[in-house]
């Protein structure tokens, strides 16, 4: 895989991670809103339940009592429905969380791969540089040795 392809894959993984993060954040807000709505319904149910309790000496009209009980039944049904909605939203948020973790893991893997590639290329370049330096040093040494031998031969030829 060449560097351009790897960069493109990293960008796609980053875009997917960003989208997964946004989706997860939205679902978390949705869960919090559903919980807040559930708490409001529970508060209403408790308040009306307290009102429904008769105190000694209180008397109520039977039709008003039936209406109150019917309202409390509908309110309890609303609480139950909202409990279900909270559970559905929590499950969706949990799935989004695992999707986000997967996207982040893939993105990190690709970045690690890119860093390893850069490091490998750096080592190869350093090896090439060292080889070039060694070859240059060796040629310089050989030239110096040849010059020294030639000089010795010239000096040897001058001596009688």
Assign a percent range to the helix content.
over 70%
Radius of gyration: 40 Å
- Provide the succession of SSEs: HH
Total number of beta strands = 0
Low-confidence stretches: none
Mean pLDDT: 88
Number of helices: 2
Query: Sheet with the most strands?
Result: none
Beta-strand percentage? under 5%
Provide an overview of this structure.
By secondary structure, the chain is mainly alpha-helical. The chain is built from 2 helices and no strands. The protein has helices at 3-52, 62-158. The two termini are 71 Å apart.
Summed up:
This protein is mostly helical and 160 residues long.
Which labels suit this protein?
single chain, 160 residues, mainly alpha, 2 helices, 0% strand
Blueprint (SSEs and pairs):
Blueprint: H1 3-52, H2 62-158
């Amino acid at each position: 895989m060449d560097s351009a392809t790897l960069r493109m894959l990293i960008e796609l993984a980053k875009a997917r991670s960003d989208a997964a993060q946004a989706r997860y954040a939205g679902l978390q807000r949705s869960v919090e809103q559903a919980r807040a709505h559930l708490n409001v319904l529970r508060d209403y149910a408790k308040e009306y339940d307290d009102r429904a309790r008769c105190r000694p000496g209180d008397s109520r009209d039977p039709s008003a009592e039936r209406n109150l009980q019917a309202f409390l039944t509908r309110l309890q049904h609303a609480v139950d429905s909202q409990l279900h909605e909270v559970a559905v939203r929590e499950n969706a948020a949990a799935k989004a969380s695992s999707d986000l973790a997967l996207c982040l893991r893939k993105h990190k893997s690709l970045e690690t791969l890119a860093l390893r590639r850069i490091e490998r290329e750096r080592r190869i370049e350093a090896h090439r540089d060292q080889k070039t330096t060694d070859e240059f040093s060796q040629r310089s040494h050989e030239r110096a040795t040849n010059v020294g031998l030639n000089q010795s031969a010239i000096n040897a030829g001058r001596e009688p």
